[in-house]
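Need the bound structure for iron/sulfur cluster, inputs here:
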Amino acid sequence: MQDSANHRFVMTRDDFPALLAALRDCGYSLVGPTLRDKAIIYDAINGVEDLPAGWTDEQEAGRYRLKRRDDNALFGYNVGPHSWKKFLQLPSLTLWKAQKTDDGFKVEARDDTTPRMAFVGVRPCELRAIAVQDRVLTGGDHIDSDYARRRKHVFIITVQCTQAGNTCFCVSMDAGPRASEGFDLAVTEIIDAHRHEFVIEAGTDAGAEILERIPHRLASETDWQNAQSATQRTADQMGRQVETGGIRELLYRNAEHPRWDEVAARCLACANCTMVCPTCFCTAVEDTTDLAGQTAERVRRWDSCFNSRYSYIHGGIVRESTRSRYRQWLTHKIASWHDQFGSSGCVGCGRCITWCPVGIDITEELAAIRASDGGTGQEGTDK
Ligand code: SF4
Ligand code: SF4
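Answer from helper R.:
Posting the output first, comments after.
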């Protein structure tokens, strides 16, 4: 549907509030980018006034700063510390809760009502990350029912990227800066001296129905060329890159590469990289009771392979050293993810680079291993 010229339109900036109002009228609660704590994060928004108009971000390894733009772009920034997974695979989910009774205990009914959410401003790399999580959490025999329920009701507005951040490498991972599927609507923001407009593509019938409710015109060939040129410029200014040819085999045969010791000497095992990563999905389950023994509950929380207890099995920790944990994370993300789920676990969003407190850079680590590819072909055995 999205490849057809008949499904490309133009909407002015002044009509953008009408798009959000149409979504609300159709029963969606809006979730989108907004300014908080000196960052652009994702949260519930009421309307266009909550979007970070006129703001951008500067990112480098271990560094994130907000800056004013010289225009009023609504989406003139790159990805921040939050990703959409926090609305789909909740950071903390109560699986069940029970109350003590006179003759045993009673399990409380769980509130499984799911809001109809409209995600406003999903970047192409984030769209790919959602597709990756879809495969992981709903693609096999064991489905995460909470994720599946939330995911089913999401309406997605993708924002095609018209600028690249310094830590972005989506082109290398074939995940951006333009998405061609997976969205209900996709917008490319076009600003010049004479206009502030959005070229819109409808990707689904639901997207086309929303469009019918708001003012728009059919896009001309020039409009479409402008939109494509904007994302091509973004591709040309990509902040970083990764050579992906044979990367799975590269990592498998370099399990004993000395670079793992070098990166481990800097890594704090703080788990930031996994918390901000839009595809990391590891969780832990905790059982708790109150001191009086009246209530008990089981909660599932985000966890990380950087936490030592995450690999605790049979009375011991499998991955004791930071070296083995960093190697596990990177090798899973880039290599064994392919064997498990049929794709890379990395979409090149750059968050793990920006939000690493010591500036460890996944692209630099991969390049260092490739530069001295001296593995023996044997799997590592250290802890
Ligand atoms: S790579 Fe950076 S963000 Fe990740 S655990 Fe190590 S120090 Fe923390
Ligand atoms: S590994 Fe890093 S760059 Fe890749 S998807 Fe995760 S946070 Fe983004």
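Comments: The first strand starts at residue 8 and ends at 12. The pocket of iron/sulfur cluster (ligand 2) is lined by residues 276-279, 333, 346-352, 362 (CB under 6 Å).
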